[in-house]
TrEMBL record:
It comes from the Bacteria. SUPFAM superfamilies: Metallo-hydrolase/oxidoreductase. Gene3D superfamilies: Ribonuclease Z/Hydroxyacylglutathione hydrolase-like (3.60.15.10), Winged helix-like DNA-binding domain superfamily/Winged helix DNA-binding domain (1.10.10.10). This is MBL fold metallo-hydrolase. Residues 38-223 form the Metallo-beta-lactamase domain. InterPro entries: LACTB2_WH, Metallo-B-lactamas, RibonucZ/Hydroxyglut_hydro, Sec-metab_biosynth-thioest, WH-like_DNA-bd_sf. CDD domains: metallo-hydrolase-like_MBL-fold.
Length: 306
């Protein structure tokens, strides 16, 4: 979640951009305060076959409707144009928010490739995010457990379970180049929204620590720029979340006992469109603190436990 605006417009949706020999990106035309420049679909492979990671939105899954990209076509068409002449071996999804997975079905129909990756999850999302309703139609052919792999011509992708942003979130490690596709779990432009009931702050923090203990060379997130110093960023994110927790505890010490007032005091200058999402992250912290016996609540009012 970020209060930066406007988002950059230097990258055209629909263009295919190479980041390294095995990695290309196609940007979806769905920029917003929650998706930054849009959802980034990653194409892995330079030989006879490829994998597609986070195929993105389609139709009503677009955050701002269903706009054409810079070439006047939809996002699925842009992906198919980028992989023309190569076989799609697998379509992988990090999680099932509707700016990530809905295009998997039309891509499967067009290519015959199996949908693999995260488990299906269909929950009513009571958070305020315009882009974060779950995709109820997601139907994987194979669910990957932590450490399971998908292989192709010159590439190997390994699933890294990272619950927290959602309970079914996976990252994917490209073994050949030590790159990690981080979905919404780690992004350089913003912190992830952790929105209960499916989002879980304790799980999110544990997943951050899991990534910190790895030795990945670079991160390719689903939104925003690549991360060239992964462990440095993750260390900062862990510190940021701990700082937010301390802020919440200070607010409770001062007698602030409802989430809207905490958000008002903690997020100075926040884009009003992001206020609800900030409240969801505060709630996630409070639920974690409650589970640890630090705070208690009654009638949506929170207090410190003596």
């Amino acid at each position: 979640m970020s209060d930066e605006k406007p988002w950059p417009d230097t990258i055209r949706a629909g263009d295919c951009e190479e980041h390294e020999p095995l990695v290309r990106r196609v940007l979806a035309p769905n920029p917003s305060p929650y998706t930054f420049t849009g959802t980034q679909t990653w194409i892995v492979g330079a030989g006879s076959d490829v994998a597609i990671i986070d195929p993105g939105p389609t139709g009503s899954g677009m955050s701002i409707g269903d706009p054409p990209d810079a070439h006047g076509a939809g996002h699925v068409d842009a992906i198919l144009r980028a992989v023309k002449g190569q076989r799609v071996a697998a379509i992988l999804c990090t999680h099932t928010h509707r700016d990530h997975s809905p295009a998997a079905a039309p891509l499967k129909a067009a290519t015959g490739a199996p949908i693999v990756g995260c488990a299906p999850l269909a929950l009513a999302d009571d958070g305020p995010r315009a882009d974060s309703a779950f995709d109820p139609d997601y139907a994987p052919d194979r669910v990957l457990a932590d450490g399971e792999r998908v292989t192709g011509d010159g590439w190997t992708l390994e699933a890294v379970a990272t619950p927290g942003h959602t309970s079914n979130h996976l990252c994917f490690s490209l073994i050949e180049s030590k790159a990690l596709f981080t979905g919404d779990h780690v992004m350089a432009w913003s912190t992830s929204v952790v929105s209960p009931p499916d989002g879980d702050m304790a799980a999110y923090m544990a997943s951050l620590k899991k990534l910190y203990d790895r030795d990945d060379r670079i991160y390719y997130p689903a939104h925003g720029p690549a991360v060239a110093k992964p462990r440095q960023l993750v260390r900062g994110m862990l510190g940021h979340r701990k700082q937010r927790e301390r802020q919440i505890l200070r607010e409770l010490e001062r007698g602030t006992d409802v989430i809207p007032d905490m958000v008002k005091h903690m997020y100075k200058g926040l884009d009003p469109r992001l206020t609800g999402a900030a409240g969801r992250s505060v709630l996630a912290h409070l639920l974690d603190l409650e589970a640890r016996g630090r705070v208690a609540r009654a009638d949506n009012r929170w207090r410190l436990v003596a």
